[in-house]
Design goal:
Radius of gyration of chain A: 13 Å
Shape of chain A: globular
Low-confidence stretches of chain A: none
Oligomer: homodimer
Number of strands of chain A: 5
Distance between the termini of chain A: 11 Å
Mean pLDDT of chain A: 91
Structural class of chain A: alpha+beta
Chain lengths: 123, 123
């Protein structure tokens, strides 16, 4: 199972130049696996745990307001962009990128096509 | 002052086909002004108040992790997409759109170019 998660994460990280990290994480804030790029500017893992809370809140808001299942959250700050996509009720897929790269659209696309395969492994 | 906020919101709402609402809201969850499109599917105003909490959390995470000022948050669920952009420390600009429209990129762009003018009015 680990390779079926690690390999897609490696491909994601490699396909997005400058990608700080690609991770599959539980909504409990525990990472299943993370591929980190070469940087020591950000504590990506801890940041992702922070984002878990945020994502849980976004999920419950979407449901509460009949907006349907949450599909994607993107956050951009001055230095860092994150694209996060729920895989199923328990796990999400996320990448952290340099904010100034033009790869956020590509990241959105790659997460969209990668998530269904991970859903099969994590079901 | 109200017109200097209402007019840009009207332009935003008009420029984005199907736009459910465009709003300027304080981080305290109180709307300064909101232009709503013709729909009764979603309680957009209350949803935006929910998103205020989320945005505050995203802001503090970004700062805590030295990722720099938060610039944009996008959320997409099955039916509804929201693009939110802080104007300054006290206010943010947000639009809610049908999730299946292709206008989220346009919304991001329009929020980016509209926010500086609102920042002058709200300073």
């Amino acid at each position: 199972m680990i390779n079926e998660i690690r390999e897609p994460l490696k491909r994601l990280q490699k396909a997005l130049p400058g990608c700080f990290a690609a991770t599959v994480m539980g909504f409990d804030g525990l990472a299943v696996d993370t591929i980190e790029g070469p940087q020591d500017q950000f504590d990506i893992t801890t940041l992702m745990v922070e984002y878990t809370e945020l994502l849980k809140q976004a999920k419950s808001s979407a449901q509460m307001f009949a907006a349907g299942e949450l599909e994607e959250v993107s956050l951009r700050s001055k230095e860092l962009a994150a694209v996060i996509r729920p895989i199923n009720a328990d796990y999400f897929l996320a990448v952290a990128l340099p904010a100034r790269s033009s790869n956020q659209g590509k990241a959105r696309y790659l997460l969209r096509v990668t998530a269904p395969g991970l859903a099969k492994v994590l079901s």
